[in-house]
Automatic annotation (TrEMBL):
Keywords: DNA-binding, Transcription, Transcription regulation
Keyword Transmembrane helix among record annotations: no
Residues covered by the HTH gntR-type domain: 9-76
Superkingdom in the source lineage: Bacteria
Tagged with keyword DNA-binding: yes
Pfam families: FCD (PF07729), GntR (PF00392)
Protein name: GntR family transcriptional regulator
Organism: Bordetella genomosp. 5
Cross-referenced SUPFAM superfamilies: GntR ligand-binding domain-like, Winged helix' DNA-binding domain
C-alpha cells in the first residue's frame, strides 16, 4: 500500500513538473486548454496524476479550472501583473535583507560570475530568462527561509512566460549588468536596509516596460 501511494505521489509530481515547465517556457500559452488525457499520453502516465497536478497548479495561479469546461493556462492582465511584481518586490526585498548577513565575498564573486552569464546570454532570450531567474534564486537562497523562497518561486513561475516574450523583443536593451550590479553593490555594504530597498527598486523598475509590452497586445 505504501509503495502504491509513493508511486502515485511520484507520478503527480512528475506531471506537475512537466506542466509547470511547459507553461514557464511558453509552450502552453495563456488560454490554452490542458487536456489530461493528452498530457498523460505525452509523459506516459494515467489521467489521475495529471488531474492532481492541475489542481496544484491552479492553487498557485498558473492554471484555471473551469466547471464542466476543464483546465486552461491562466493569463495575467496588467493589473494582476502589477500586483505580482509588487508582491515580488516585498518578498524578495525581505529575502535579500535576511540573506546579506549570511553572504561572504565568495558569494558575491559567484553573483558577478552569474551576471557575466546573464549578459552573455542576452542574445538568446531563453538563456537570458533562465540565467536571470537563477541569479535571483541564488541571491535569495541565503535568507534561509524555505517558505518565503517557495512563495517567491511561485511568483516567478507566474510571470516567466511574459518575461520570455518581453526579453525576446529585437533591439530591446536589457540593462542586465547595470541593474543587477546595483544589487551586488548593495550586498557589498552588508547594510540590510539598503539591500532591501535596492531589491524592491530593482523588481519594480521592470513594471513600466513590461506594462507597455502588454498594452501592445501580447
Amino acid at each position: 500500500m505504501l509503495q502504491l501511494q509513493k508511486t502515485a505521489l511520484t507520478a503527480e509530481e512528475e506531471a506537475y513538473q512537466h506542466i509547470q515547465h511547459e507553461i514557464r517556457l511558453g509552450r502552453y500559452a495563456p488560454g490554452e486548454r490542458l487536456v489530461p488525457e493528452v498530457i498523460a499520453g505525452r509523459i506516459g502516465t494515467s489521467r489521475m496524476p495529471v488531474r492532481g497536478a492541475l489542481r496544484r497548479l491552479a492553487s498557485e495561479g498558473l492554471v484555471q479550472i473551469r466547471p464542466n469546461r476543464g483546465a486552461v493556462v491562466r493569463g495575467l492582465d496588467q493589473k494582476e501583473m502589477l500586483e505580482v511584481f509588487e508582491i515580488r518586490s516585498v518578498l524578495e526585498g525581505l529575502a535579500m535583507r535576511n540573506a546579506v548577513l549570511n553572504m561572504g565575498p565568495e558569494h558575491l564573486r559567484r553573483l558577478i560570475s552569474m551576471l557575466d552569464q546573464l549578459e552573455q546570454g542576452s542574445g538568446d532570450y531563453l538563456d537570458w530568462t533562465t540565467a536571470h531567474r537563477e541569479f535571483h534564486e541564488y541571491l535569495c537562497s541565503f535568507c534561509g527561509q524555505p517558505r518565503l523562497l517557495r512563495q517567491i518561486a511561485e511568483l516567478h513561475a507566474v510571470v516567466e512566460p511574459y518575461m520570455r516574450l518581453w526579453s525576446s523583443q529585437p533591439g530591446r536593451a536589457l540593462r542586465a549588468r547595470e541593474s543587477h550590479q546595483e544589487l551586488i553593490d548593495a550586498l557589498a555594504t552588508r547594510d540590510p536596509d539598503r539591500c532591501e530597498a535596492a531589491m524592491r527598486r530593482h523588481v519594480l523598475n521592470t513594471v513600466p516596460a513590461l506594462s507597455e509590452f502588454l498594452q501592445q497586445g501580447h
